[in-house]
Amino acid sequence: MVVGKxxxxxxxxxxxxxxxxxxxxxxxxxxYIYLPEEINIIEGEKHLFSFNLPIEAKINSEKxxxxxxxxxxxxxxxxxxxxxxxxSLRFVDKNISDIDFNVFGVSLKKAKIDTIPNQKLIPVGKVxxxxxxxxxxxxxxxxxxxxxxxxxxEPSKGVLKTGDLILEANDTEITDKNLLTKIVQEDGKxxxxxxxxKGNILYEKIYPIMSNEDDExxxxxxxxxxxxxxxTITYYNPSTGYYGALxxxxxxxxxxxxxxxxxxxxxKANISCIKKGEKGTPGELMxxxxxxxxxxxxxxxxxxxxxxxxxxxxxxxDLIENSEFNIALKEEIKTGKAYIYSDILGxxxxxxEVEIERINTLNYDIAKGVILKITDKKLLDTTNGIIQxxxxxxxxxxxxxxxxxxxxxxNDPGKGYGIFIENMLKEEKNI
Length: 431
Hints:
Blueprint: H1 2-34, E1 38-42, E2 47-49, E3 56-61, E4 67-69, E5 72-74, E6 78-82, E7 87-91, E8 96-103, E9 106-116, E10 122-123, E11 127-142, E12 145-146, E13 152-153, E14 165-169, E15 172-173, H2 177-185, E16 191-197, E17 200-206, E18 209-210, E19 217-218, E20 221-236, E21 242-245, E22 261-275, E23 284-290, E24 296-299, E25 302-304, E26 307-311, E27 326-327, E28 336-342, E29 350-359, E30 370-374, H3 377-383, E31 394-397, E32 400-409, E33 412-420, H4 421-429
Parallel strand pairs: 1-9, 27-32
Antiparallel strand pairs: 2-7, 3-6, 3-8, 4-5, 4-7, 8-9, 10-20, 11-14, 11-20, 11-22, 12-13, 14-15, 14-16, 16-17, 18-19, 20-21, 21-26, 22-23, 22-24, 25-26, 28-29, 28-31, 29-30, 30-33, 31-32, 32-33
């Protein structure tokens, strides 16, 4: 009997301890998710934080004497903070720093603190044609070649994969698909390829096959070397000379991979038709991209998940119609009224009213930091909401630029997502 009671007590104790451990795990998992992956701070400005959590944090700064905590200069490169209390931070110089959130001295999570230069931007809102040329030619898929001997060959099988970028063939840089075709046609001998496969450089060999259909050598691949479309310039940065546009990257329509850019152009786009958005069918700005010396307004130098970036030609800076605005970090954004700038009618940038419905400061999806709803009657009558081609339209709230429109809700064209402007600026810094 005594043994039975002891066993019962042990089971109850185990259940209690397990439940306690489970609750603690849930609490700390929730805290971990709540804590930021990164913190952005505008150089020279004071930023207020209120985590209201029963944990501590250590801030490590690369430079000494550039950090101010609660308006007091921190002389050391490291300082501890009690996160139960609100605090303020200010960095008076560009700096690399991080914050280590810890419980009883055990690190729970580390976050980078990024100092963004204190600069003003000009919101643009101009609809432009965008043409980019890939860094190498992209493999869209592999297939068969019917040989002269009646056999079916797959010369690229096991050598090339969808999404590969062919950089060189026989030590010749491949700038377009016509050049690759010329090399394949030369003599039908082994071809040495230099390939970029998801950032890894590989060297492969491939053997062309004489096709029974047209008596030409082939290696059985489909490729693309360029793409074009219509989008909107978000901002022009007078302090750097760069512009940012789209708020999201340009993906290949077949592979869904982010296209790497060797070069690109910002071109004039004549909008001929506006296809309104409907539930389940996104709308679209339809038009013609004009590629001439006169209509080449600037370069495209980078295509990233934060948008595309490049420089405007000096003679085309008169495209910018608006004045400079301060930027707002995500912590400053409020739900409620805001505006977007757009030139969808091609008659100059207009301001349209929207409503910020939700702000996702956790920022797991870079291009979906805010949810906004179109409330402007004129824009709704024209487009029925957000349509393709409006990506990149700058979002303004309280006379500050807060981000850019990125995506439309497929089942509700009146709503869409936006990216935080701080994310675009951080990417611009890396150019």
